[in-house]
User: What shape does this take?
Amino acid sequence: MALFELIDKKTVKIPLKSKKKNDCIKELIGILKDAGKLKDTKTALADVLKREELASTGLGEGIAIPHAKTTVVDNLTIAVGLAPKGIDFDSLDDIPSTIFFLLLAPPDQVGPHLQALTEISKLTRNKEFCNSLLHAANSAEVVELFKKESLKQVL
Assistant: This one.
């Protein structure tokens, strides 16, 4: 399954309102809750924060991918959030993160989780794509950008 197939208008938020890392994670989990994509927000939050304790998922260059294996989803689930002003996410390069991908996957589904992380890594290396995301007017435009970029990678 392509990454863009997991992203819809209900799982994208522009702009994120959070100013701090943990609040950002809560807000991203709230997006999935509101979209009816997870069974329990407290467990999801605990699982993501436990993963963050191992090492920050703020990768640098404005990208953060908080993620966790959790029993509160049946399939790989993704929320996308944009914070053009940036949020300190304890990134490796100390640059505030502006583009967020929250991934939650069931413990027994390793493949889709790794495929999504790989696809996100490829997409976010494209600075033009990232810039387009940050200037998107709404969630529908973000979804369309993902579709177009995914098609480019296939061709």
Remarks:
- The two ends are 16 Å apart (CA to CA).
- The domain at 3-154 is CATH 3.40.930.10 (Mannitol-specific EII; Chain A).
- Strands lie at 12-13, 58-60, 63-64, 67-69, 77-87, 97-105.
- The first strand starts at residue 12 and ends at 13.
